[in-house]
Amino acid sequence: MPRRPRILLVNASLAGAAGNTAVLLTRIQRALRGKSAAETAVLAGGPDFAALRPRLAAADGFVFATGTHWDGWSSELQRFLEAATAAEATSLWVGKPAAVVVSEHSTGGKGVLSRLQGVLVTLGCSVPPLGGMVVSRAALLAAKSDRSAARDFWGLADLGVVAHNVAEAARISLPGARAATPRWRTWPVDRRDFAARWLDVPARSAQPPPE
Ligand SMILES: Cc1cc2nc3c(=O)[nH]c(=O)nc-3n(C[C@H](O)[C@H](O)[C@H](O)COP(=O)(O)O)c2cc1C
């Protein structure tokens, strides 16, 4: 029986263990229970890349989590990635699946997610299917006031999909893993009115009277 994969959750929040990122990673860790051995590394005020290296080497997969800061990821993560460049394309990263969770107030998070996935792939990681998402305060507020209109937005339940898929990707790449078909999960997708217009035409009476 192959061992369970080890997943390292990298908390790159400016607020360390006190921020939104830590809350999201707690949910990820809960979702990983029974699928993997997960542990967290907090970058802010914690180990630098060199000190973290043995834990990165021991991991079979990663979840990177950061807030959005002026359209970018945190300075903690930037420092980490700069130091990690020395290990680019080495066995520390190559072939290991990396999931990404970004939080934001309202805008910029998807750009951070896509660029970070690109960097991780260049370091040598793989990106699992549906292995990254943005948790937006604006989207969560919208879902509270109109659940049906917000059904196509990412929500907290989707963290379970990200957690499952990174664990699954790590499981199938473990040495000695049986060549079974991976059991990926997907989140709900709006297939009915994804192209529908969502802006109302202004009412005639709201238009200024003709001169
Ligand atoms: C300096 C700073 C810049 C931020 N810039 C953005 C931004 O560009 N877009 C956005 O939607 N949210 C922005 N935010 C909000 C954070 O992304 C959001 O609160 C995130 O959840 C923070 O994660 P943390 O609590 O783990 O640090 C910013 C927050 C700070 C402190």
Could you characterize the architecture of this molecule?
The chain starts with 5 loop residues before the first strand and ends in a 39-residue tail after the last helix. By secondary structure, the chain is of the alpha/beta class. The protein is built from 6 helices and 5 strands, in the order βαβαβαβαβαα. The chain is globular and about 75 Å long. α1 packs across α6 (159-172). It has helices at 20-32, 49-58, 75-84, 109-123, 137-145, 159-172, and strands at 6-11, 37-42, 61-67, 98-104, 132-136. The protein has a single domain, classed as Flavodoxin domain (Rossmann fold), CATH 3.40.50. The chain binds flavin mononucleotide. Flavin mononucleotide (FMN) is lined by residues 13-15, 19-21, 67-71, 103-108.
N- to C-terminal separation?
82 Å
Overall pLDDT score: 94
Low-confidence spans:
none
| Ligand types | flavin mononucleotide
What radius of gyration results from the CA coordinates? 20 Å
Order of helices and strands: EHEHEHEHEHH
Percent of residues in helices: 25-40%
- Side-by-side strand order of the widest sheet: 2-1-3-4-5
Assembly annotation: single chain
Beta-strand segment tally: 5
